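Batch job 17 of 40 flagged for manual review because the log was empty.
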Amino acid sequence: MPERIHELLDRWLAEAPRRPFIHLPDRTLSYADLGALADALEHELRADGVRPGDRVLVVAENCPEHAALLIACSRVGAWSCGVNARMAPGEVAAFAAKADARVLYFTAGVSSAAAGHAARHGATPSCVEGMLRSAVRADAVAEPEPLASEVAAIIFTSGTTGAPKGVMMTHRGVLHFARVSAESRALGQCDKVYAYAPMTHIFGLGTVLLASLHAGAALEMRPQFEPAELFDALAHCGVSQVQGPPALFARLLQYCAEQSIAHPVAPQLRYLYAGAGPLDLALKARVEATFGQTLHHGYGLSEYAGSLHATRLSERRADTSSGYAFLGAELRIVDPATGEDRPTGECGEIWLRGVGLMPGYFRDPQATAEVMRPGGWYASGDLGELHADGALFVVGRIKEMIIRSGFNVYPGEVEQALNAFPGVAASAVVGQKEADGNEAVIAFVVPDPAQPLDEAELKAHLREQLAPYKRPTRIVAIDALPFSANGKLMRRQLLERL
């Protein structure tokens, strides 16, 4: 069994070095080609004095060079710290400072945004074409053992509910997830995975790259998501698996409507998965009707190096359950105030522990202490319920829960009702504080361009679906909902609009 992530590639370098692995529109790289890139970057890192426990920040959009740098860092013992190139300059600078990075890399060959950041940091060409790198910082402090050897990467949380934190992910955790993720969808050497999800996020790093390396599956790689490119890859490139946040599937459906596509041509497609956010039942039904495939769903987070729960490959559910626990994962539903277990079927905070759990937030013991509980449990801040069959249902987040007239209002429940109405393409619900300490339920609605939105009829629909305290006190039409680069809804931006 591999103990470090670069050993996933080592297996294929020994068994099938010439097998194609990464497919791009203009070229294909074999395992040997990726290994050669990793060799060059490993030599460069060692020549620069990068040591075990150092952090290497990569400002990136997906490309083979980024994958090779991940492998090279693992060989050296350094920690790769991914930052999406579409972040603002101030955010990139803050991440570099937070990571105390010894050197910064930029995937300028595929990303004009990365090239812009590289220019601001005075970067010069790397030994690998398409990569630029900053000057090496002599004063960066390497982390000591045993942490230096245990940690593979830092993933920065998206910051949708506060300041981003650096999640330390261990080799053991991400390798375990690569295995169980691949097994859960029967990923194998005949598969080709559409690899657009940013490898700067656990979704793209674990679910796509490392799981595919574990299983020997190929990647159809793109630096960004474009619906036309995905549909072309489905029709002509043999893509068999597509994973992404619910926002990706909403965008695909919108594109189908715009292009009058009833059913995409996808002769090899056999697996669809929505993660990294709550799944809406109306969206799920539309995706399944359009693609003729089950839309699978799961629950995970960066702090656990991936998913803990997912629906079963053989099961087609008529709900939005996140499925069943993976091997090695433990999950409890508790009263957030007392930590006592809630009865089956009742809502509470999701606590978790297991193989993939982080050792903590990088150099932030206070933030780590705030989420860790006795017995090694991590308090996720997510609300959910476990049914008698072990299926998990995620309701929302504690911080997003709205208190209206003394009752709890979960945005996801209201959004489900909104999205089921013809004329609503998407919605998001937030709570707005009122003078008396109560919270108003505010709904942001993206109208469906194919049919006009009648607000009076929408309100009548909501009266049939929701108790009075759950109904929006205000409905705001909006052109598009704000999402982060990782596909997560930015509710704070909606609150700022108010």
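Reviewer: the log was empty due to a logging misconfiguration, but the result itself is present. The chain has a mean pLDDT of 92. Unflagging and moving on to job 18.
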